Amino acid sequence: MRVIACASAMLAMMSVRAEPVEDYWANLQALCGEAFEGELIEAPEGENGFAGKRLLMHVRECSEQRIRIPFVVGEDRSRTWVLTRHDDRIELRHDHRHEDGTPDEVTMYGGVSTNAGRPDVQYFPADERTRRTIEAAFSNVWMMRIEPGETFSYGLRRLGTSRVFRIDFDLSAPVDPPPAPWGWEAGQ
């Protein structure tokens, strides 16, 4: 009887560990098809590439295993956040394209969450692929936080430095979706 109780407790613990990822994924999927305007909250000193520009995220494509979120800065439609589900982990990649749809030299960097996270936030430490692509980004940790009906935050912290970046998107006020990201017109 004791063995059955221990096995039941272990199964319950295993399902609890997967729940944060399930909830997080469901919160993202609930946004599918919608677009939201963002506000630059924090940026590294001297980096003004986002300041004064309209910032939009569009949860454009959702499947059971992958969610693609184009991130538009002004007229620049080169960026897409690609989230891929791997059991109780999520992988984040930054897909960067040129106007003609070809991949940028600096693309597909990111990382995989190191644990199941929480239902409202996931952290993605830079992986070896990122270090090979952007040497200075070897200590990056990206964050994506969802407060359903309120805010979606995308952020970056470079450990060991003062480099911090964050944009908050207002989930309470959907906007018209932007045009397709560069390269998507050809079905990419």
TrEMBL record:
**Source domain of life:** Bacteria
Question: Residues of the signal sequence?
Answer: 1-18
Q: Which UniProt keywords apply?
A: Signal
Q: What is this protein called?
A: Secreted protein
